[in-house]
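Request:
You are asked to prepare a plain-text protein record giving the amino acid sequence and the backbone structure tokens, at your earliest convenience.
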Amino acid sequence: MNTMTDSPEHIDRGTLAALYEETFKNIEEGTITEGRIIDILRDRVVVDIGYKSEGIIPIEQFSQQELETLSVNDTIQVYIEQREDAEGNLLLSKEKADKMKVWEELEVAHREGREIQGKIISRIKGGMMVDIGVKAFLPGSQIDLTPVRDMDALVGKTYSFKIIKVNHRRGNVVISRRALLEETRDRKRQTTLATLAEGQLIEGTVKNITDYGAFLDLGGIDGLLHITDISWGRVGHPSDMFSIGDTVEVLVLKYDRETGRISLGLKQKTPDPWTKVEEKYPKGSRVRGKVVSLTDYGAFVELEPGVEGLVHVSEMSWTHEVRHPSKVVSVGDVIETQVLHVDQQSRKISLGMKQTAPNPWDVIEARYPVGTRIEGKVKSVTDFGAFVGLEEGIDGLIHISDMSWTKHIKHPSELFKKGQTVQAVILRIDREKERLSLGYKQLTADPWESTIPARYHVGDVATGKVTKIADFGIFIELEDGVEGLIHVSELGMDSDVRLEETFSVGQDVTAKIVKVDCEERKIALSLWEYLKDVEQAQVHEFNAAQGNVDQSLGRAVPQQEEPSETE
């Protein structure tokens, strides 16, 4: 007979007291038991746990979501805080019951090595704080297989973890994500190694990128895709082709089981385009391509994926001196070129841009015969001459030696300035070297063949201005721009006398012509000879004035001899 079902009037007080003691002897403070909800009020939930009085749980211990689904007669786990309060109610806690249940589950998961789910809630010193029902510590070294650069980006994300340490009494739980990743990696590695073979196509995830290639995770084991095996063409840097996390299908080129090294290839998935370049791009053919890169010496043009040719700077223009390819083309330009040379073995193709247009030097001789007088602007002035533009891209050089018949030109800037319009005469055309020589002095007749021999004779006296003072003498400009040189030996001066102290540029000087060499184009003057002639003339004039000549007798009167020293 079940005494609990009997009517109270049939039970005496002693039996009733014993019955209560037997029923509630296991209800102790600090333990968890099961209870039935008998009422849901505004500030509390009333629960029956079979005690003589009802249990009370504050409404704040239930979430809004739980309250929306909570109903009378629902069964829940509760924690006994206190058997009875001052009003005789049994104080219960749902929060503590939940936490104790969580701790029990964590201890079981730790013992059995099971995974748990958790949400990273904050970053703290040394790692992260994770919500797994209770707060757990995730050390920074246990977050991933590799160091995490941006730990703040993980906050709010949910992952699977493994418990590596739990202490309920201290409320301490340490978890690891890396342990799970290592287990997964090891399982994948064993599967990959069992099936891996050279020549096999396999998918991998880009794990790391270096200057010399990309490392791919093939499933627990890494392989290297070297930069030379990425493309048949030229690859500037692996990062131009891949990003971390990309999935790439590659070919296993080599697998060394002893060292565990795996070499991968991407370009090997397609045929080598260079095997037929001589057939596809014969010498002299015209092709279009895209400029993919520029260097100091030229531009690389992609003719097809994996096949590039080089347009050297010297092959970019017939008429302009291209100092850098960027002055003519830019990366991304599609240009037309002509194949100049193909070296299939060295995987090189030489291209030319200027060959797609007529060469103006082919008709230069017909347009500008030798002796033609032209007019153009001075493009530039150098130490050795002046460049004059005849037409777009065609320049001619007036050499310093062809600037004057008679003047000594020290620098072309004495006659020409950049932008100045000048006339000149075509002297020579070098078709092969693409050079055109001009003459400025040839605009007039050579005075050394026409006027100078008739105007200047040995023994003549000439006057001019000092144009230059040198160590070996002074230059004198005579009329019509003709220069003569008075050598130091013809100055009649002591050797220790400085010429700059005696003469100055622009000073008028009269001298005697002692030599006229039309072949060497030189006129030699002598100041000493001139001064000697002047002195002799003066003596003669003096003697003529003082001479005892008997004009009336027509005979000379003897001069009185000077007395000797003995007299």
Summary: The longest strand covers residues 115-124. Confidence is low (pLDDT under 50) at residues 1-11, 549-553, 559-567. DSSP finds nine helices and 32 strands in the chain. The chain has six domains: 23-112, 113-181, 196-269, 286-356, 363-443, 452-533.
